[in-house]
């Protein structure tokens, strides 16, 4: 056959400069596009061969890098093309797509991202971003075909030449331009292919022309059978873990995973892992990769999975996600909404299943998944509806319970007083004494942590699901009104006056300013109350208004470390033996010792509500030692 010249029929003189200019920053996608075309060609060949009862060869793609010749070639054993087909699909059709692209970009004046390329059929032409000459050699699978070679030097003219290609398939040779020589490196090509083609369905070999004979044996760079395409019933835990290790080598073991598989009304496969969260690492980086038929498309799964699920890691593969349209239309896409709902539902179901079938395991991973779960419940009402009953808290006995279980555990005698209430204490705060008191009455309290729970508990209070209503009340704000009290006597009033004198000072003679200063000096202590809890030996505790406490916590979470002191009330239990004895000492005139006891009682209340700050500890130890010494002397 003689060589033949042709001209691209559409007016596209400016296509190449535009492609180069606009797509420059993303120019490694040419490998993805050409390998994806090769993959399509192999799939088409298999389909046709099946209908024609022909033998189906194992699909294979070879990418060769020749630094000396300055070429990269991509060869497949797909269906191949006749000269007429090359002319039609490559030279004309693809160019018309390119023209449409250029027109659109000109009229809108915007900058396309790499997702625009596929849409306008620019896939093949991305080759020109890195080449100054592209050759397509092909032999069609159709019986009696002759091989053909098409050559284009990045202008609208092209030639067809004779070819000696003897195997069915297509070989595309790129003569790499001066700006793109970084790609003339087998390692660079391999790593680019790994990024985009790690899970393509046919084996991809990378051949380095420079490599010595013995090491020239090309390696397969991809995993043709990614785990998400496999049947979950054939997979063991170890298979998932191994996949995870390969994908996220810096992580520890995943806590838990979910295999997504759906055929109708859309197709989707995927595996999502719950990573062990690193609290020091921000959550905003997305670790879910989006694939379209095993071809990597994007790290951006926004809109496809809700934000709270972006804490998960893994892969989602769907050919029903319109990848090449702009973000705004993606949001309104009914398929996307369906997919997103499906993923949410599936995640919730898997967690429920784990809860029901292996509660011990669920509890083991709870610490790591709770942030995600509570955040999910707050931000997505569907997820909330499905998961609220599966949120668990540690109770005073260090056992995990759901809110329903908590309510059910309230003793009959307290059912009315506790109606809808959930007693809680903040993690790390050591109000054991109060909790012990409640526990002796069979009342549990739930541990909350400071970061997400102020939001989560508020959410639960405001968003009612079913007939359950909840009101979270902290142990210290509620204990006095819950537990049975003894009537206040005259001697109790004396206790109040005595402690007020010592700890706050005689208020009558003070100006308001002095009082405020005093209150500051006492860490916000302003009031003293007496509450005589029946059968309680605890001398005192601090009570903080529930609403104030929460506001303060939220401010703290936002980095606003209490600018103003929160008003606290020192609640003294005159029934406690220590207080009783302090009163006796006062009556005997030993006020020096009473003063020490009063400060000690305040210290104890501090310890039980917040623990002591490091700088206070030394003073506390010194004061306690002094008091002990004095009490011992007294006894001897
Ligand atoms: P798209 O892949 O979206 O159709 P491309 O520009 O990537 O657009 O490719 C244009 C056409 O060229 C393909 O549809 C296909 O018919 C043909 N083609 C490209 N590469 C190959 C190949 N390796 N083997 C067979 N046909 C190919
Ligand atoms: Mg393509």
From TrEMBL:
Domain Histidine kinase/HSP90-like ATPase: from-to ranges: 26-180
UniProt-annotated binding residues for ATP: 33, 37, 76, 81, 96-97, 170, 327
InterPro entries, sorted: HATPase_C_sf, HATPase_dom, HSP90_C, Hsp90_fam, Hsp90_N, Ribosomal_Su5_D2-typ_SF
Molecular function GO terms recorded: ATP binding; ATP hydrolysis activity; ATP-dependent protein folding chaperone; unfolded protein binding
SMART domains given in the database record: HATPase_c (SM00387)
The entry's keywords: ATP-binding, Chaperone, Nucleotide-binding
Family to which the UniProt record says this protein belongs: Belongs to the heat shock protein 90 family.
Protein name stated in the entry: Molecular chaperone HtpG
The organism of origin for this protein: Bacteriovorax stolpii
